[in-house]
Each structure stands twice: as C-alpha cells, then as structure tokens.
Design a protein that fits this description.
509 residues; mainly beta; five-stranded mixed beta sheet; 2 helices; 39 strands; globular; disordered C terminus
Length: 509
C-alpha cells in the first residue's frame, strides 16, 4: 500500500466523522493491515433546516438552539460554532414568480445569524413576528455539532392558522414520508421545502389517498433555489379531496429539509414531521391523557399489503383498542381509522406490529390528535419514530407545560433525563426513569434550579431495551389547550468509524 492509499483512508475516516458515514473498508493488502474494532466518535459538523413559520401576521415564533454539554472524554477539540441563517427567499408555490398570494416575498439577510449558539449545555434563543419570517439554514461545527437540536415554536392566537405549532428543525435528506396530511376542503396543508446548499435542488411530491395515487403533473420537478425555501399547497396538486393523504417527498437532485404545515378550520394547526423510514413495526409515542380524538393514518409503500396488530401501551401494559385490534393497509393506498378517545384519561403510545399470520411489510404511520371540544379544540401530530438510542434532545421547554412520554415496546428500559441550564440562567439537573416492558410513562420532567428562560431536555439510554420518547408542550390560551408534540429519535451525534493499525514500514514501499 502506498502513501496515497493511506491518505484516502484518512480522508474517508474524516468524512465519516462529519457526515455520519458508518463504515470504511481498507483495501486487501495480503494481511499487512490489522483492523481494530470500530470506535464511535462525535460528529464534527451538523446541518439543520427550519421551515418558514407560516402565513399569519399574528404569528409569534421562538427559535431555541441547543447542543448537550460534552461528556468529559469528548470535551477536547475546537469549540466550533452553531448558527442559523435566513434563507435568501421563499416562494408560495413551485410555479409562481416568487410572491405569495398576498403579494409578499420572504426576504432576509443571509449573512447575519438569526440564532447564534456559543457554548454547549446552554440554549440560545431568538424571536420573529409575522408570517413573512423566512426559512432558516443552519450549521454547527466542532463541539457544538454532536447532538445539535433546534426547536421552532410558533403561537398564532386566532384565525384559521390558530394554534401552537412546534417542529424540530430537520437534517437535509432526499426522501420523506408524511402520513396524516389531507386535501379535504376543511384543511389547508402546505409542504415546506428548504434547500441548504449553494445549488438548486429539484424535488417531486407524490400524493396517495385511500384509493391510491392522486394523479398530479404539477408535483413533479419542483425547483428549490439555492439556500431558499419553497412552500406548496398540496390541494393545488390534485383535483381530488381526501381526508387521509400520504405525502411522499423525494429529490431528483440535491437535498432538502421537508415538513408539512397542516391547518384545519375546526381544530387549528400544527406541523407534521416525517415518519421514520418504512418498517414492519412502528411506535408512535406520547398520546395525551385527555385526547378527545385520535386518528391513525398508515401507508404501505411497497408492492405488498400490510396486516397490522394495533396495541395501546398504557400505564400498566398493552391493550387492544376495542373494534380496532387489527388494521389492513392495502399496497400504495392510505388507510385511516378513527380511534376516538382511546386513552380514556391515561397517557399512552401506539404500537403497530405485523399480525400473527402476516409478514413484516414496511409501513409508515402518523397520528392526528385532538384535545378539547367544540370551538376549543386544538390539533397535534405524532409520527412514528425511532428509539432514543444513545441520546435525544427536545429544546424549548418552559417552567410549566412540558410532559415527557417514555415507552418501552419490548423489554424494560432505563433512561437518564437531563434538564439543561436555562437560556437566561439556571442549574442543570438529572433524573433516571425506569420504563416497564409494554408500558408508557408520562412524567413532568425535571426543571433546572433557578430557571430563567427556556431549557432543553436530553434523554440517554442507560440499560435494557429500546425506549421511544416524545415531548408535549402545552400553552393554554383562552380556554384552548394549545399543544404540540415532538418525537425524540436518536440525534446521531456520534458515528462509528474504523480504527486501523498500520505497519508504516510497508507504506514506504
């Protein structure tokens, strides 16, 4: 092996630490290279994208940026920086002239950070008013990269967009699934696409209803300009109205961040985040105890139908919802089922598994959850999510109003929950929770001593089986239980990289 080969391996290892690439294989040189077990190292760079908050002039948005404090053995290295910058533009749909329906174009100064995080362990916040706030493009480096999290929380007090809208800003990708969207007349759902790169991305949006594909020509080849955001009203992509729609976003070139902003004339609005990737078993954690309506929406993207067993994981164990013990999902057709107030006053989580006689057909799923009644209703969404894994974080927690839901769908698990310092002061505090097998635990999380401002919650798996989690933030207003739910999948703050032992004498040949 010549020195050129060594450089390539070193470069690949560095790339893994930056991008999350999981493995590198060295060339076979006849046994002269002895491989050591792979090690997990902190990532050195992270990217996050926040969608434009919305269309309402009444919108008040708070951004909270946070990176967990480094563990002692990870504390070395450059401090780095974490900043969120305004996108240069955002259009109201994919085919217009850059102006929204009210004639306004989102404008921003791309050189001035909207939020600048300077140190791990302490949140940084910023605020924006109105519906013209742009999408944000963010990057974190050095010690601020591992586990970097940004929460975007918007309050709209009145109008069709009323609600508490929360979303964890997303990493750029090329493939997203959004069950529980709609093209019904009572709904106004937008797909928000944000491009972090210096070249344009091209995206496709596919819609699937209860009878299959909702044909559309205008959903193909949507250009998302460099470092910009585009929002697309999905009801303009098809002539068919459907209560339950699955949205599939892919890119032909480039990458984007994607989220769906769903608004209902009766129950307000919130963000719908992407479901975890298609899988045979799915967990949807954190249904509030006082939910008055829960609707499950699922989709099987492959060629096979899916037969699922539905279980509610509650405080004492798993039960089958009466009359909805099983769900049949036809291939490439969206299935929706009204589970009503299935939690009956106790918090819970939903577990979808292959039926006893069925095979593990990959599906995606999400819940549409309503709290309150009559004109005091409020809606939130819970997509299927991956386990907490090594570490996961929810930013923007308040002194009151946060509930942390933990569920162990298999074996019992133990997690450590750390409340960070406050954005304006406060001392971190930690607490350990045990979650029994097949149950959901909903707790009021620890609050930093002397809290001023907002704080973050970081969940770490300590032992046992996988634990899935979500955070519900509630801000009551005029008798309406305004709320939003964010799931907590593993933050991928570390990446597995190979450790190679080289005989340097061979490299001189």
């Amino acid at each position: 092996m010549k020195s050129t080969s060594l450089s390539l391996i070193a470069g690949a290892v560095a790339l893994a630490a930056v991008t999350g690439f999981a493995a590198v294989t060295a060339p076979d040189d006849g046994g002269t290279t002895a491989a050591k077990p792979a090690a997990r190292l902190p990532v050195e760079r992270s990217s996050l994208l926040c969608p434009a908050p919305g269309l309402s002039d009444l919108a008040e948005t708070q951004y909270t940026s946070f990176t967990p404090a480094a563990k002692s053995d990870d504390a070395e290295g450059p401090a780095g920086a974490a900043e969120l910058l305004s996108s240069t533009a955002a259009k109201d749909d994919a085919k217009d002239d850059g102006k929204s329906k009210d004639g306004k174009t989102e404008k921003a100064d791309p050189d001035k950070p909207v939020v600048l995080l300077k140190e791990p362990g302490k949140p940084a916040t910023a605020e924006a008013s109105g519906g013209d706030a742009p999408a944000l493009v963010g990057t974190a480096t050095g010690r601020l990269a591992p586990g970097w999290t940004v929460q975007q929380t918007t309050t709209v007090e009145a109008g069709d967009s009323r609600g508490l809208l929360g979303v964890s800003c997303t990493a750029p990708d090329t493939d997203f699934w959004f069950p529980a969207a709609s093209t019904a007349k009572s709904r106004e759902d937008y797909v928000h696409l944000t491009n972090p790169d210096d070249t344009a991305a091209v995206a496709d949006i596919e819609l699937y209803g209860p009878e299959g594909t909702l044909k559309s020509d205008v959903g193909e080849g949507i250009t998302v300009p460099a470092r910009s955001g585009v929002r697309v009203l999905i009801s303009t992509l098809t002539s068919k109205a459907a209560d339950d729609v699955t949205v599939h976003v892919t890119t032909r070139s480039g990458r984007v961040g994607a989220a769906v902003r769903a608004a209902d004339t009766d129950s307000g609005s919130d963000w719908l985040s992407a479901s975890t990737e298609p899988a045979g078993t799915l967990v949807l954690p954190g249904i509030p105890a006082d939910a008055t309506s829960v609707r499950l929406v699922a989709f099987a993207p492959g060629e096979d139908d899916a037969d699922l067993t539905v279980k509610l994981l509650g405080k004492t164990g798993a039960i089958s919802p009466a009359g909805h013990e099983d769900l049949h999902v036809k291939s490439r057709m969206t299935a929706g089922v009204d589970l009503k107030d299935l939690t009956k006053g106790e918090p819970g989580s939903l577990l979808l598994t292959p039926s006893e006689d069925g095979k593990a057909t990959p599906v995606v799923a999400a819940l549409r959850v309503v709290r309150g009644k009559g004109d005091k209703q409020e809606v939130g969404y819970i997509p299927a999510t991956a386990p907490v894994g090594a570490q996961a974080t929810a930013a923007d927690n308040r002194a009151k109003g946060s509930v942390l839901s933990l569920t162990a769908p298999g074996a019992a698990g133990t997690v450590k929950v750390t409340a960070s310092a406050g954005s304006k002061g406060g001392t971190p505090v930690s607490k350990t929770y045990q979650v029994a097998a097949g149950t959901t635990v909903a707790v009021t999380p620890p609050v930093p001593a002397g809290l001023k401002g907002t704080y973050a919650l970081t969940v770490e798996t300590q032992s046992g089986g996988p634990v899935h989690a979500s955070r519900t933030l509630t801000v009551p207003m005029d008798g309406i239980p305004m709320f939003t739910v964010q799931t907590l999948p593993d933050d991928r703050g570390t990446v597995e990289v190979p450790a190679a032992e080289q005989d340097l004498s061979v490299l001189d040949n």
